[in-house]
Amino acid sequence: MLQVTNPDASLVITGIRVFFNGQEAQRTPAYIEIFGRSIHTSAARNRWFDLPLYREESLQADKKLIINFGPSPDPDNVIMIDSIKMLV
User: Fold this and answer.
1) Taking a C-beta distance cutoff of 8 angstroms, is the pair 70, 38 a contact?
2) What residues does 30 pair with on adjacent strands?
3) Residues of the domain holding 50
4) DSSP class of 24
5) E strand or H helix at 55
6) 31 vs 67: CA distance, rounded Å
7) Contact present, 11 and 76 (Cβ < 8 Å)
């Protein structure tokens, strides 16, 4: 779980972009979840995953956004995320 805080009330979070490196495919989480919606993430190569927020979700995320990540196939359940961008 990752919690993102928005300290600037003049900005609205409209989505997120998450980057996984395909060289560490065994450490890629099975899914990304925000507001109960999830997308399956299988990264056999370098890849960005885009998760746009609906209008209602953007209004709910005005101060805080929680991003959940599913388990990885790694035996130690290590998850590797290379980059996360917040879209405003």
Assistant:
1) yes
2) none
3) 2-87
4) G
5) helix 55-60
6) 10
7) no
Chain segment 23-81, per-residue pLDDT in tens:
778 888 999 999 999 999 877 788 999 999 999 999 998 889 999 999 988 889 899 99
Q: How many CB atoms lie within 10 A of CB 49?
A: 16
Asked if 13 and 52 count as a contact pair (C-beta separation under 8 A), the reply is no
Q: How many domains does the chain have?
A: 1
Burial class of residue 34 (count of CB atoms within 10 Å of its CB; 0-12, 13-18, 19+): buried
* Residue 20 tokens, joined: 């996984």
Query: Quick check: pTM over 0.85?
Result: yes
How far is Cα 88 from Cα 33, in angstroms, rounded to an integer? 19
